[in-house]
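Human: If only I could read backbone structure tokens as easily as an amino acid sequence. Take your time, and here it is.
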Amino acid sequence: MKRMILCSILMMTLMTVLLGILYPLAMTGISQLLFPRQASGSILCINGKPVGSSLIGQSFPAERYLQGRPSAAGEKGYDGLASGGSNLGPANRHLLESVEKYRLDVEKRELKSDRSPIPTDLVCSSASGLDPHISPAAAYLQIGRVARARGISVDEVRKVIDAHLEIPFLGLIGEPRVNVLMVNMALDSLPWHGILRSER
């Protein structure tokens, strides 16, 4: 009996060291070696100060910035500690009301007078609630507002978005997309005095 207990303790200790300490350290070391930026959180900085991660969405309520997807993560959205979608089905009344509210908000914000379709990613949250990307159509819809708020031309804003258009991997996997934070940082680097960190 003592031998069995001793073997059990030794096996638990060995597995704890192997899988609880050595394996995580090895994976962390390999990822830091092969993918240092991603392993460190893909943090983006302005003047040496972090403003966000290119992998995690955040809120940009100011008129001069591209807006990301709506977020159902946490009470106010974009809460990294409460990542998740709304989990509402397509026939759920609350989901339909939410989509209609976001549609009206987009139409008002973008001064959209026609009834043409609005890109889905501007009225529906993602499964994580922290998606940092929007579709090119969602980005282009916002060009007029951003240009007006910044006092620059529509073409300047379009060039910034086009420069940050991410194409599908190998041209096949995924969809074209635009990283909201990276575009907003690039917009702030134009000859204008906005500071991304101070007035988000």
